[in-house]
Amino acid sequence: MRHTKKIALAALAVGAALAIATPAGAASGASADRPLTRAELKKVLLSTKDLGKGWAVLGETRKPVELAGLDVNDHGCLTAARKFDTAFDTTGQGVLIIGAHSGTERVYTGDAATLKRMTAAAKRVVGACDGAGDTRDMLKITKRSAGGLGGSAYGFQVRTERAPYNGADTLLLHIDYVVIRHRSAVAVVEGVDASGKSHWNDTLKLAKKALAKLKSAYPKA
């Protein structure tokens, strides 16, 4: 049963990955913030070395699940979800994380306006969707604290009952999203848990490691 849940969790994480973006900025050695190159984006992603023994990090290129595709019975939240999907409908680099707590990380780059749209969209979801759900009480979105990650970080959690893939049993899932902006990059860390319990603090730990990796790519001020 435990093995089945791990497979289900990994399958959901692959399909449910969420974006990451950061303000236009400089990579290591650059004197001013500018959009990162594809190679630079790949270097700032979390790796197995960053997480240590017992973790695996695999390349992931699929687009994230659309928030607007959730069965939310709230017009304001649905509008915010659509704007979020639009803001992150761009090419980024990502990885699938498998370990004690599984999920994904994605990083995006762009000019200042693009990055501002991303963080503004995340802030809008946090404000408009806190407490939103569906008529069957099988979905609930909750604002979560992204404390310790700076003023340009936003977090929310989706609790939903669903089958992670066709033919699987329905599971109570907690899907966490943390959106972090640092200079010319935005990182979106997603944690997925199928145990029926929230593991938000574990997702925050991954997000803190992601932020530290982003910071290491830029020269210190």
Describe this structure in words.
With 221 residues, the chain is of the alpha+beta class. 33% of the residues lie in helices and 25% in strands. The protein is built from six helices and seven strands. The chain has helices spanning 2-15, 38-44, 48-51, 75-87, 112-129, 200-216, and strands spanning 56-60, 93-98, 102-109, 139-144, 153-162, 171-182, 185-193. Strands 1-2-3-7-6-5-4 form a seven-stranded antiparallel beta sheet, sandwiched between helices. A hairpin with a 2-residue loop joins strand 6 (171-182) and strand 7. Helix 4 runs antiparallel to helix 5 (112-129). The longest helix is centred in the middle third of the chain and has 18 residues, at 112-129. It is globular. It starts with a helix and ends in a 5-residue tail after the last helix. 46% of the residues are buried.
> How are the strands of the largest sheet arranged?
1-2-3-7-6-5-4
Question: Which percent range fits the helix content?
Answer: 25-40%
Spans of at least 5 consecutive residues with low confidence? 2-31
Overall 3D form: globular
Please report the total strand number as a whole number: 7
What's the end-to-end separation, in Å? 50 Å
Which structural category do the helix and sheet elements fall into?
A: alpha+beta
Order of helices and strands: HHHEHEEHEEEEH
Mean pLDDT reading: 83
Helix tally equals 6
Mind describing the biggest β-sheet?
7 strands, antiparallel
Strand content: 25-35%
Q: Determine Rg (CA atoms, Å).
A: 16 Å
